[in-house]
Amino acid sequence: MGRVIDLNPEFGYEIACGIPYAYWLHQRGELDKVVTSKGMKPFYYFTDNVEEKYESRQVNNSVNGVEKLPNKWIHHNVKAVFPDKDYGDLTDEEKSMVHGVLDYSQWEVPDYKKEYSDDRFKFDKPTVLISNKIVMDHGKEPHNYFDIKTLYELFVYLTEKGYSVLYKRPKMNEFPIDENERATIHNGFDIKSDVEGIGVISDHELCKYFDDVYDFDVLVEDYKDEYTYNEIQLKTFSNIDKFISLGGGNSIFLCLFGGELVAYVTTSGECRDGYFDDNSYYRKLGNTNVHAVVDLEKNIVERGYNDYERFINKVKEVF
If you write DSSP's letter for every residue of 196-259 in order, what string do you get? Predict the structure, then answer.
């Protein structure tokens, strides 16, 4: 009898810790069944025995199935690097060696690009995907998002460089959400701005002002009768190798597709020294070249605004 993987954690945890373990088991004939959240079956294409059971996700790892995985903490697995030490025993230099590092002994990533690449979802020009979100983190006001001004600067720069831009920002009704996302909806947070000469405009509406900027929601609408939301994501992103994203689940997901990723990181363990070094799961998910720009949330709160300048400069350097 094989193993049953039963999970409904935050999306990033499932991508980084859950799926690679399930695939590792599958490759050895040791996977019996996967129980996961609604809509996640395309991520487990390698097995037919998938039950999409959960209507919501849980951030509490003691109840969402993560505790039963080889990697129970997404930000490091100390024992994989220093078997005889605990995190609190490490020097600062040693901590930088474990941040973002998992135990890879039971960890293998499916080849999503090979499985899902589909020319129907390929743009005529070289394409950059911008993945945005606005989500409260443990009850705090959101700081980890791209505002209208930043998006405008990105759209102008990238289209003038000859790229097509695919813009994605879920409305959080496309998939099961966790407590943080539910709180965001309840509090009515959105990405809008009052633009001179236009009026109040949303990020999705901004896309319509550019010939070579495409809203992912429109693509989903075009193919919704043929494919699920996640199938469309996987098919489209498999044809892209240039990504711009926020830290967290957004960027973890995009690392499955390799290429270049510029990430704007504000919170959580990803802000720790060494997190995106060569042994990081971020890089190992798809041999992704990660360019992380850290703007600490505490600094954002102190100054009263996000400092996107270094991030935009990094985008211009990479693309």
Answer: TTTEEEEHHHHHTT-TTEEEHHHHHHHHTTTS-HHHHHHHHHTT--EEEEETTHHHHHHGGG-S
- Segment 73-128, tens digit of pLDDT: 999 999 999 999 999 999 999 999 999 999 999 999 999 999 999 999 999 999 99
Pair of tokens at residue 197: 């000469």
Q: What are phi and psi of 214, to 5 degrees?
A: -120, 130
On whether the CB atoms of residues 263 and 133 are closer than 8 A, the answer is no
Do 265 and 246 meet the contact criterion of CB atoms below 8 Å apart?
A: yes
CA trace torsion 26, 29, 30, 31 (10° rounding):
40
Distance (Å, whole) CA 71 – CA 69? 5
Look at the pTM and tell me if it is higher than 0.85.
yes
Per-residue b/e over 127-142, b at no fewer than 16 CB within 10 Å?
Answer: bbbbbbbbbbbeeeeb
Query: Cα–Cα distance between 46 and 25 in angstroms, integer?
Result: 11
- Reported as a single tens digit per residue, the pLDDT across 208-267 is 999 999 999 999 999 999 999 999 999 999 999 999 999 999 999 999 999 999 999 998
In whole angstroms, what is the distance from residue 90 CA to residue 93 CA?
8
Strand 242-246's sheet: what is its strand order? Answer: 213-215, 164-168, 127-131, 242-246, 260-265, 289-294
Quick: pLDDT tens for 20-63: 999 999 999 999 999 999 999 999 999 999 999 999 898 899 99
Element (DSSP H or E) covering residue 115: helix 112-116
